[in-house]
Each structure stands twice: as structure tokens, then as C-alpha cells.
Amino acid sequence: MTQSRTRLLGGILGALLLWTAWHYLGPESSDPITGAHGLPPGVAGAIPRASTDPNAKKPVEFVEALRVADLGGQSRSYTPGRDPWHFVDPPPPPPPPPPPPPSQAELDRMREAQERLAAERAAELARQQAEAAKPKPAQFTMSYLGSFGTPQKRLAVFTDGKTIYNALEGEVIEGKFIVAHIGYESVDIQFVGFPDWPAQRLAVGHPSL
């Protein structure tokens, strides 16, 4: 049973091999019994079989007309775009909207503040002018050289660079300066006719400031 099946399969395979060989090799054979198109001569109505050569060229079906005017080229305009190798600053932000106009109450407050400021400036200017118009004592320009004597009776020594002045506490120098107090290292000078004017203190060895 197995041998019969093997023979049957072998016969079928041989037939397939023979048919395949005839199908692919038969039309190209130069056997004299075949015609020009791979069919036996005398067979009426036979349709020529197309060539199976992959390198065969197809027949030309359409020929495009040559337009000589197109060979000269045409002028074209080109607008370059953004250069990707250069950074571009972004446009500035839009300006903020203008502030709303002030209300009437705000205008009144602004006017009152301006009037108050103007009144303060006028008062300060008047005070400065009045202060400048007041009489002032003469400036004490002598240097204090020191003091000597007993604690109960000390003499202060001054000089103007040319003359030396010795004065006890309470005495007047040049009719304008009062030796108000003599200390160990300083002296206080007041001014004749200006009892409320602050005293001027001089240290030993230093000129009056």
C-alpha cells in the first residue's frame, strides 16, 4: 500500500516537472516543429505569446513635443526667510494703558497739598529773612593760650597774633567780648549786648571757630 502511494506521488511529481519545463522552456526552443510564435505550424487562430524577456523595451506610445522657449529659463523672485542661525529679539511688549484721570476729590486734595506746601515755604522764607535781619554779635577770632592764677582768681590769656590779652572771669575784651567762664582747659566767651546769644567755647591752643 505504501509502495503504491509512493509510485503515484512520484508519477504526479514527474508530470509536474515536465509541464513546468515545457511551460518556461518550450516557447524559446528552436525545435523546427514549432512556428515563429512558439506554436505548432498550421494551428489556425493561434494567438502569439508575449515575450517573457524582462529586458525587452516597451513600444513608444506618445512623444512629448519639445518646447524650445522653456529651455531659456524664466526669471523668478526669491524672498529669503528667517535665518535659523541668528536670533531675533522679540518685539517689545505693548505700552500699558494710560491711567484714568483723577476724580474731583483727588484734584481737591492735590490742590490743598500744593497750597499747604506753598504756605510752608513762604513761612520758612519769612523766618530766614527775619533771622538775617536780626543784629548779630561780632565774631571772636582770637586764640586761647590758656590760664594761670589761683582757682579764685584765674586769668585767661588770648592773642590775636599781634597782641596778648589777659582777662579775669567777667571782664570784657575790646568792649565786645565777655570772659564768662574760665575752666581748666577751655573758656566761654559771651557777647556784649547779646545776653541771650549762646556762649562760644574755646579750647586751649585752638583758635575760635
What does this structure look like?
A 4-stranded antiparallel β-sheet has the order 4-5-6-7, with no helix packed on it. The chain has a 3-stranded antiparallel β-sheet with strand order 1-2-3, with no helix packed on it. It has helices at about 1-25, 105-135, and strands at about 145-150, 155-160, 165-170, 170-175, 175-180, 185-190, 200-205. With about 210 residues, it is of the alpha+beta class. The radius of gyration is 67 Å and the shape is rod-shaped.
Secondary-structure topology with pairs:
Blueprint: H1 2-25, H2 104-133, E1 143-150, E2 153-159, E3 164-168, E4 172-173, E5 177-182, E6 186-191, E7 200-203
Antiparallel strand pairs: 1-2, 2-3, 4-5, 5-6, 6-7
Descriptive terms for the model:
209 residues; alpha+beta; four-stranded antiparallel sheet; three-stranded antiparallel sheet; 2 helices; 7 strands
**Average pLDDT score:** 78
Q: For the report, how would you describe the main beta sheet? A: 4 strands, antiparallel
Relative helix content? 25-40%
The rounded distance between the terminal residues' Cα atoms is 149 Å
Q: How many DSSP H or I helices?
A: 2
Judged by helices, strands and strand pairing, the structural class is alpha+beta
- Taking Cα atoms only, what radius of gyration do you get, to the nearest Å? 67 Å
Strand order of the largest sheet: 4-5-6-7
The tally of beta strands, per DSSP, is 7
Instruction: Spell out the helices and strands N to C.
Output: HHEEEEEEE
* Beta-strand percent range: 15-25%
| Silhouette | rod-shaped
- Unreliably modeled segments: 28-48
